[in-house]
Structures are given as C-alpha cells and as structure tokens.
Amino acid sequence: MSNTITPRLQYSSTAVRPRWADLPQDVRRLVSRHLGGVVDAGPSAGSGFTNGFAAVLHGTNGSEFVKAVNALDNTVIADCYRREALINQALPAEVPAPRLRWIEEQADGWIVLGFDAVDDGRMPSAPWKPAELAATLDAWTVTAEALSTPSEALQQVGLEPIGDGSDFADWRGLVGGASSTKPLPRWVPTHRLETLAELETQWRQAVAGDAVLHHDLRQDNVLLDTNGSAWICDWNWPCLGASWFDLVLLLATAHADGHDATLLFASHPTARGVDGEQLDAALAALSGFFLVSGAQPPADWSPYIRQHQTWCGEVTLRWLADRRGWTF
Question: Once rounded to an integer, what is the mean pLDDT over residues 29-46?
Fold first, then answer.
C-alpha cells in the first residue's frame, strides 16, 4: 500500500441529490409514461459530484437509470446532460456503455434522460480487487479499440483535441509565481517543483493522438454487472488524444491500493510503444492540475470535490514519485 495522506472518499456517498419524491409531478408523470405504471424508485445515486437527480427506477416496462435536472436552476449540468446524450448515441455498439433510451426537455426547464440500467450495477470495490480491476481494464481495451478512430457519428458531434483551449500548466504556474504554494498540502515536495514543471511541459506532445478518450475514467464512473463485467458510464467529456491517457488516473488509484500500476500500464494494449517519459509527463500534468484545483476554496456545488481532487493529485504524484525514486 502507498502511504497516502489524503483520506479516500467513500465514493458511494459523495453526491447530494433530490429523491424521486422531490421531483415535480410533471417530471414523475413523464418518467412513468416511459417506464409504465406506478414507478418503484430505488435510492438516489450516492456517487458523483453534481446535484442532479439520478436513480434506478422500475416500472412495468422494465428498469432504467434516470437522470433529471432543471436547466433554469443549473445550466452547467443541463448542458452536460445534453452533451452526454449526443455522445452516448454516437458511441459504437462495441463500447460497453449503458445506452440512452430517451431524452425529453419540458417547457418548465426540466431535462430528463433514461438509460439502460446495468443489471445489479455496482461500483468496483475500494480498495481495488484484482478481478474487478482486470474487468475494468478489459472494458477499456474493448472501448479503446472501438474508439481508435472517431466514427462518422462522433465526428458529427464534434470532438476537440485534448487540451484544446486549455493547458495543464499548474506546476509551471507555481514555479513562475502565477499561483502560490501556500494553499497546497504541506506534504507536497516543493523542492521538486522545477522538475515537475519541466515534465509537465511535455504532456501535450506525450498524449497527442486521434483516438476518442473518455477523459474521466475513474472508479466511480465504472459499474460492474452480475457477471463481473465492467461498464463505462458518464460520457460527458470525450476528446481526442492517445488512448492510454485514460489509464493514468485509473491506475494511479490502483497504485494507491498496492497494485503494480507500472506493470499493469505496460501490459495494457493501449500502452504499446509508450515510453516512461510520456507516462511521467502525464502523471506530472494530472498531479499538478488536481493538487492546485483541490487547494481552491470549497465549492458550494459539491462538499466533497476538493478532497476528491486532492486525493487524485496525491495518488498520481505518488505513483510518479515511486517511478522516479523520490520520497516525500
């Protein structure tokens, strides 16, 4: 096990969401029309960092995972839902993702989406169990193969290269004085800032590519079904880049649980031909982004997002440190 200092969240309990009974009657009627009959509502999903409604609901026509939000109250989430619907419908059939069945927008601002419900779907265990980690890596192998080049449908949706219009430049910002090291956790090895900043400069070239990335592949965006197969959820942020980049954060969390992340990375099909400097550049970029983000003031839209970001920053930095023989 790594000596991670930041507490790991219970990712099944990070969201603050309305219950089924809290939704307006018109929204509940709409869902009932799709599901059939009286809706039997399960508990709202505890994972995630948004306040939109999300739950598995049951009716005479079967079960669906339903999301809903009022666009008048939360434009950002509403736009994410619209984007997710477009992306989901454009994914190749081979991608193991729960499929969108329908989306409706009401005049009062509510956006409601119904997805296939994963059979007894649950998040992978924390810490990672070897079989569940293997199933998730296998799912990404299949997904990456299907998305190695964008389909015509995905091209029509419009996908930008990773980092287009933005940059991972947080370590460089600390070195150059654009931001202060004071808000960072005290354990951050500030004597390594120059090295981290130099590695960070290489990230864009390291992860460039034409494949479609999920761009948010983390443990709480994966569901396991009754057969132990993994499904990749929440396709909100796809972009174009190197397929292996999606492995980096995922395997950093596995490294925190004592798995040999470097060996798992090297043995994954998407990592063929990737050298150590490329991986280290990606780890530097992600660790700086997450640590600086986690040091920002608390977010009123999520009570847990800063801890999540700090933890992600620490696990990526500790994997990088382990690879380069650093201690902190």
Answer: 97
